[in-house]
Automatic annotation (TrEMBL), chain A:
It comes from Propionibacterium cyclohexanicum. Belongs to the succinate/malate CoA ligase alpha subunit family. PANTHER family: SUCCINATE--COA LIGASE [ADP_GDP-FORMING] SUBUNIT ALPHA, MITOCHONDRIAL, SUCCINYL-COA LIGASE SUBUNIT ALPHA. One of its GO terms (cellular component) is succinate-CoA ligase complex (ADP-forming). It comes from the Bacteria. This is Succinate--CoA ligase [ADP-forming] subunit alpha.
UniProtKB/TrEMBL annotation, chain B:
GO terms for biological process: succinyl-CoA metabolic process; tricarboxylic acid cycle. It is an enzyme of class 6 (ligase). Signal peptide: none annotated. Succinyl-CoA synthetase functions in the citric acid cycle (TCA), coupling the hydrolysis of succinyl-CoA to the synthesis of either ATP or GTP and thus represents the only step of substrate-level phosphorylation in the TCA. The beta subunit provides nucleotide specificity of the enzyme and binds the substrate succinate, while the binding sites for coenzyme A and phosphate are found in the alpha subunit. Binds 1 Mg(2+) ion per subunit. This is Succinate--CoA ligase [ADP-forming] subunit beta. It comes from Propionibacterium cyclohexanicum. Residues 402-417 have a biased composition (Polar residues). Its cofactor is Mg(2+). Pathway: Carbohydrate metabolism; tricarboxylic acid cycle; succinate from succinyl-CoA (ligase route): step 1/1. The gene is sucC.
Length: 298, 425
């Protein structure tokens, strides 16, 4: 088993005819991910060639749901139209929406996050690299060739740090890696990913990557203390970040004494999480954890 | 983007929220003239800075004459409050205060909705109030889809314990503030104090508004609020080229892809520098994003090398979708565009097509470029290269590699293939 993205996932891409949408649709398809089509309003009836086949383009998400049984959508539309796109996917009953778009107005995302929560839609992002269950499915822009399937779950705000850890743990494999995104308001939190990994029988250990800003990591630490029995290894980026400056991600900002990397690391450690000082050390800690796990029954 | 008080009050006025009459002054003479124009027996001179605690710092003065106002402005206009230089003061009419309240509406990151706060005890430090007398601060969650409607505002006012006769007018004001929040794509609207005058009027006597940079595309007029004073020249240049650059003032220039990886790179470099003479620190944050073209890499190198404090540069790339050979070509072409590298550059490539990428850099054989395999080793190398003897210190005219520390281990210019983490302490 994996979390959220599995053998039954049927993926469409919203904004499939845009340059990023097309590029990543092809990458997902080439990696064997079950991408079945896409949506661009006004381009219904077109077909997009991908390695080995052609994908249908629909005018609406609802048409895509009816025609190809889509239950997962990856959103690549520009920020000004992201609100409409996500709301359309939620309204069409899509179960998993991955919003890759960066630069979405925060009020828009807070509205569509609320709508997704009300509808019971699992929304990941915005401003996220997506989710991958290696060798099963890939929804977003996470490279599929770094790591194979395994028993480690990973949740991170950052894309490149996710890739870095996937690379360092490539011999061990992962169940699912989720990039929840670096915006102030996101559809999926560290806590929701932790809860899903805790419930997933394939996942036996969890990597949690955080960064400055907000208090999501502190909340995750409290959740781990009370609800997570599987070993968790953590990493927090941004110790060097000055107060009041946004470090790339819209949500990565230290305000006063809150949101600092130091506080997050301390909270995680107090919850029994081993926290690496660098990505490499984090990978080494995870290696130690995996070695101490009981042998896999296969 | 935070607004100055006077800008926030302009937004409030545009949305028919009452604010004290005020005039912006950039010189003591203008402040004097402002006091005369206001014609009020009492005026208040308020430093315009994007930082809290102005009052405590002495940035607010109550004046009883135009001369006093001029003198106060003269003093305040030389102040620096929490690192912010005061470049203007707002001169406002004195108001006859009967009571001071607090109100704010903000995006609640943790709860993923909005939150409205209100207290009948305003004019105080709200964080202290929240900590010490949290029962005095009413908090009501606000649905992002419905906003602060009359019903929610009424709940907030009731919870804050306001007298019945005040409620109707307060609710009307709060709803209007909620409209400002939505209409302007704000992340925060805060009024402290919200004042009840002796004549029974409700006035926003102070205003703090933070707008969402992501939403500026639908608020073209708000770009006039963008304020470049005090922004470092290199940050302006980087922004013009679409680069995400924050100057930090250290010696090791940093270029990487992805915000998380770059933040992490700063940390690893800072840690490596702690044990070295002079403790070299990261000079900047610079995220070139995905799919770095040669031009983007050249722009990035140009910006980082323009910082006279930079003694070495660390380029840290993880090729996810981007292939490392493309990135390596980018670095080579960037060096051609920049010309001769004035300081040593340490490059760490990993991910997609990493071997091809490293081969391209080896073939280029630029003596100023050092290829190091792991992020931790590369960070240490870059920090070591930023250490220099005070007497023979690095200068822009020194030949490439001159900044190499005599303490650097022999043969360090091409790191051995140390396993990841092998040099961890």
């Amino acid at each position: 088993m994996t979390i959220w993205l599995n053998e039954d996932s049927r993926i469409i891409v919203q904004g499939i005819t845009g340059s990023e949408g097309t590029k990543h649709t092809r990458l997902m398809a080439a990696a064997g991910s079950p991408v079945l089509g896409g949506v661009t309003p006004g381009k219904g009836g077109h077909r997009l060639p991908v390695p080995g086949r052609e994908l249908p383009v629909f005018d609406t998400v609802r048409e895509a749901v009816e025609a190809v049984g889509a239950n997962t959508s990856v959103v690549f539309v520009p920020p000004a139209r992201t609100y409409q796109a996500v709301m359309e996917a939620v309204g069409a009953g899509i179960g998993l929406v991955v919003c890759v778009t960066e630069g979405v107005p925060v009020q828009d995302s807070s509205r569509f996050v609320e709508a997704a929560l009300d509808a019971g839609t699992r929304l990941i992002g915005p401003n996220c690299p997506g989710i991958i269950s290696p060798s099963v499915a890939n929804a977003g822009i996470i490279p599929a060739n770094i790591i194979g399937p395994g028993r480690i779950g990973l949740v991170s705000k950052s894309g490149t740090l996710t890739y870095q850890l996937m690379k360092e743990l490539s011999d061990l494999g992962m169940s699912t890696a989720v990039g929840i995104g670096g915006d102030p308001v996101v559809g999926t939190t560290h806590i929701e990913a932790l809860a899903a990994f805790e419930a997933d029988p394939q996942t036996e250990a969890i990597v949690l990557i955080g960064e400055i800003g907000g208090d999501a990591e502190e909340r995750a630490a409290a959740f781990i203390a009370d609800h997570v029995s599987k070993p968790v290894v953590g990493y927090v980026a941004g110790f060097t970040a000055p107060e009041g400056r946004t470090m790339g991600h819209a949500g990565a900002i230290v305000s006063g004494s809150s949101g600092t990397a130091r506080a997050k690391k301390a909270a995680l450690e107090a919850a029994g999480v081993r926290v690496g000082r660098t990505p490499s050390e984090t990978a080494r800690l995870m290696r130690e954890v995996v070695q101490s796990l009981p042998e896999q029954v296969s | 983007m935070d607004l100055y008080e006077y800008q926030a009050q302009e937004l409030f006025s545009a949305h028919h929220i009452a604010v004290p009459r005020g005039i912006l002054a950039r010189t003591p003479a203008q402040a004097r003239q402002a006091a005369v124009s206001l014609g009020s027996p009492v005026v208040v001179v308020k430093a315009q800075v994007k930082a809290g605690g102005r009052g405590k710092a002495g940035g607010i003065a109550v004046c009883h004459s135009a001369q006093e106002c001029e003198a106060a402005a003269e003093r305040i206009l030389t102040m620096t409050i929490k690192g912010h230089v005061v470049r203007a003061v707002l001169v406002v009419e004195g108001i006859d205060i009967a009571a001071e309240y607090y109100f704010s509406l903000l995006v609640d990151r943790a709860e993923r909705r909005w939150l409205a706060l209100c207290s009948a005890e305003g004019g105080v430090d709200i964080e202290t109030l929240a900590r010490e007398r949290s029962e005095a601060l009413a908090r009501v969650p606000v649905s992002p889809r419905s906003g602060l409607d009359a019903k929610t505002a009424a709940r907030l006012v009731r919870q804050a314990g306001f007298a019945d006769e005040l409620r109707e007018e307060l609710v009307a004001t709060l709803v209007k503030l909620g409209e400002v929040f939505v209409a302007e794509d704000a992340l925060l609207v805060e009024v402290n104090p919200l004042v009840l005058t002796r004549s029974g009027q409700i006035l926003a006597a102070d205003a703090k508004v933070s707008l969402d940079d992501n939403a500026l595309f639908r608020h073209r007029s708000n770009t006039v609020h963008r304020d470049d004073t005090g922004v470092h020249e290199l940050e302006l240049r980087a922004a013009q080229r679409g680069l995400n650059y924050v100057r930090l003032g250290g010696e090791v220039g940093i270029i990487g892809n992805g915000a998380g990886l770059v933040m992490s790179t700063l940390d690893v470099v800072a840690r490596a520098g702690e044990d070295l003479p002079g403790s070299p620190r990261p000079a900047n944050f610079l995220d070139i994003g995905g799919g770095a073209s040669a031009q983007v890499m050249a722009d990035a190198l140009d910006i980082v090398l323009s910082d006279p404090q930079v003694c070495s540069v660390f380029v840290n790339i993880f090729g996810g979708i981007t292939a490392c050979d493309e990135v390596a070509h980018g670095i080579v072409r960037a060096v051609e565009l920049v010309g001769k590298l004035p300081v040593p550059v340490v490059v760490r490539l990993d991910g997609n097509n990493v071997e091809q990428g490293r081969e391209i850099l080896r073939e280029a054989a630029d003596p100023a470029i050092t290829l190091v395999e792991t992020m931790d080793d590369a960070a240490r190398r870059a920090a070591e290269l930023a250490v220099h003897e005070p007497d023979t210190g690095w200068s822009p005219d020194a030949p490439a590699g001159a900044s190499q520390s005599p303490d650097a281990p022999a043969g360090a210019s091409q790191s051995q293939d140390a396993p990841a983490g092998a040099r961890e302490r």
